[in-house]
Amino acid sequence: ANRYGRGRIARYRPEIGPPAPAMRALEPDLRSAARFEQLHLVFQPKVRCADGAIVGAEGLLRWRHPEHGLIGPDQFIPLAEETLIIEQIGGFVLGAACKAARAIKNAGFDMTVAINVSARQFGQPAFIERFWRAMKQYDLEPERFEIEISELSMHPSRDDMAGALEALRAIGFRLILDDFGRGQTSLAFLAGLPFDGMTIDRSFVAGIGHSSTAERMIGGALKLADELGLETIAEGVETEAQFAFVRERRCAFAQGFLLSPPVELDDFLALVRRSPFL
Ligand code: C2E
Ligand code: CA
Ligand code: CA
Ligand code: CA
């Protein structure tokens, strides 16, 4: 049982679904998925390490395929990016995130909502305009949103990267560097970009207790974040030992199955209402 859900909430761990080569054959299905309402966002709580309070939600995409069942984003986002379907999907995500942020606010909570954005999307003026329109439609402010951009999608050769990030930040969005340590970018490159926070990848968190390399990596990342003035979020926290490790090293926030898996919006609101602080 996890700390908040006490095991009562169905997990969304899409480990099934078709293998990679078969994904390609699903391109036409993916193209129509958004239109036919097969896509939806689930929400994973972002928890403050100091007191266990839920301070935000991260929206994570799910595709409910009529024949193949639940398909996870790791399986279909790459195909979506290759085929430009990502633009349509990204539009859906913006709308769903705004809708969720409105529901959370209406329930009386002041929280951030994070979305994951592909490198392909975030530099485009159309993306910013679309986000802006969705926010205004739901009467929300950009400060409420966190845009997570994976280090894996960063390229030092893209000199428009910094400009695109600056533009989003100037509007008021919070920017989070996702999957830190998994990409190939240099520290100098990352340090020059206008991020507000970074996540500690779950592959490092998984090594706590038995991989000194992983533990050193986490220590180094937290130190770097501190020096750059970035907030830190440990991902994939599954055990009390992992939670204690990151908390002791003053990582500010944590996410993971120990705290709660990603859940439907209604279940997220229920978690927040009975959020038992540490
Ligand atoms: P991510 O942003 O690093 O998201 C965290 C992933 O770790 C999620 O997988 C989440 O379900 C999983 N997770 C959370 N806690 C734990 C834990 O304690 N243990 C383990 N083993 N896993 C945990 P998910 O939902 O399958 O998402 C995978 C990736 O797909 C995300 O990684 C993100 O990069 C991408 N993605 C998700 N939603 C979107 C989206 O709307 N747009 C785009 N472009 N990418 C998305
Ligand atoms: Ca993320
Ligand atoms: Ca991540
Ligand atoms: Ca995350």
Describe the structure.
With 278 residues, the chain is an alpha/beta fold. Helices cover 42% and strands 19% of the residues. The protein is built from twelve helices and nine strands. It has an eight-stranded mixed β-barrel, surrounded by five helices. Helix 7 links the parallel strand 5 (145-150) and strand 6 (174-180). The longest helix has 22 residues, at 85-106. The radius of gyration is 18 Å and the shape is globular. It binds ligand C2E and calcium ion (3 copies). One calcium ion binds at residues 58, 116, 148, 178. Keywords: Coiled coil. Residues 23-276 form the EAL domain. It comes from Prosthecomicrobium pneumaticum. This is Diguanylate cyclase (GGDEF)-like protein.
Q: What general form does the structure show?
A: globular
**Share in helix:** 40-55%
Catalogue the unreliable spans.
6-14
Count of distinct strands: 9
Distance between the first and last residues' Cα: 16 Å
Q: Roughly what fraction of the amino acids lie in strands?
A: 15-25%
Ligands (ions, cofactors included) = ligand C2E, calcium ion
What would you call the structural class? alpha/beta
Strand order of the largest sheet: 1-2-4-5-6-7-8-9
The major pleated sheet works out as: 8 strands, mixed, barrel
Indicate the mean pLDDT: 89
Task: Encode the helix/strand succession as letters.
Answer: HHEEEHHEHHEHEHEHHEHEH
Number of helices: 12
How large is the radius of gyration?
Answer: 18 Å
Domain EAL: 23-276
Keywords: Coiled coil
Protein name: Diguanylate cyclase (GGDEF)-like protein
Organism: Prosthecomicrobium pneumaticum
